[in-house]
Amino acid sequence: MVNLKSRHICLFLMVLIIVYYAQGVIYPVGTFISRVSLLLLLFVSAIYFVVFLLSRVYAPSFVKAWTALLIVNSVYFLLEGDLAYVGAFQSILLNMLPFYAFYYFSQQGVLSRNHLIVFFVVLLPIVIIRFVTSSIEMQDLINKEEVVDNTVYLFLGLLPYVFLFRRTSFSIAAILVIWIFLVQSGKRAAFIAGAITMLVLFYFQFKSMSSQKRQLGKRLFWVVSLVCVIVWGFNRFLENEFLVHRLQLMLQGDTAGRDKLYKEVFTTWYESNSVVQYLFGRGFQTSEKVTSSGSHNDWLDILASFGLVGFLVYFILFTAGFMQLFEKGWVNYKKAGFVCLILIALLASLTSRWYWSSFAYSQMLLLPYLLASRNRVD
Q: Which of 100, 126, 162, 115 is nearest to 11 (CA)?
């Protein structure tokens, strides 16, 4: 039987997340409301984190690596002692700390599929309004219609949620709605994330069908549906000449200046000529210290900041995530969602950032749910 107290705390935390991400839509950015909601969310989550550390309950390798990464970031931030990096550390805590509360709620059967579907339905229009508003403001600011708006990353955190719908038609509809804004953004990584989600959805849908003759009609239906969706999505893509041009540049080797940032950050670590710095890095947020904007690559950020030790922790985290897919007992829709989430995580880690991204609700909420309840249908 579900603990009512845990259920109330779970719903309270989910409301706090909605309230926090509603800033800029329902109320102004950076006000008392957003600060209080964030502090309450982190405070309650910290309690569950401490309980997790003190408990002797078995935890998968992924959760252990997640914990190690959080501890490494926390220790280095405290050693840094510079308030200039409070914003970055806040993003890390927002992405990583609530994981433990929702992991516990998922284990206890408190956090359900329906809760997450409602969360998605409520947050999607908020994200759409934030993106549209941000794009309009940016267009007015630079006096151009073709802009690359990073607010689109908020959609990346919503993409894995589409697998939770019981009707595949709802999942497809949700992807297509999000796809419109992914293409409009002109962001290449966002476009690729959307394409990954579509392919994962149709792969798992087709795989789940029986090979019996009575299923042939259903298979044919989904093949036709896949073709229609691909044609529609491709046409939307072709209509955006700006995105087409950017993808062509990417195929020609254009990295939007990232190659220079990569080289600068890596050189800072490699040419340190110090065994200590090779192993333990040069301190919290080193890439921002040497480039002012960061490397737009988690792996290099971690290597420069935490050295080979931190890099190994991050490598183990992703390795454990992919190994988790080979575990038996996965419910089909949860495995599909986890595949999508991990692939988008890898993409984000290589092109921008993941474990301290702007779409924290994927890491703090959906990720622990999928891990803790992978073999349970709800």
A: 115
Reported as a single tens digit per residue, the pLDDT across 144-169 is 656 567 788 999 999 999 999 988 88
Where does residue 215 rank: exposed (0-12), middle (13-18), buried (19+ CB within 10 A)? exposed
Residue 59: how many other CB atoms lie within 10 Å: 16
Residue 250's alpha-carbon distances to 240, 247, 254, 302, in angstroms, are: 16, 5, 5, 25
Q: What is the pTM of this model?
A: 0.89
DSSP-assigned letters across all residues of 45-111: HHHHHHHHHH------HHHHHHHHHHHHHHHHHHHH--GGGHHHHHHHHHHHTHHHHHHHHHHTT-S
Measured between alpha carbons, how far is 31 from 170 in angstroms, rounded to an integer? 35
Residue 32: exposed, middle, or buried by beta-carbon count in 10 A (0-12, 13-18, 19+)?
exposed
Task: Check whether 257 has a pLDDT greater than 50.
Answer: yes
Q: Which helix (H) or strand (E) holds 353?
A: none
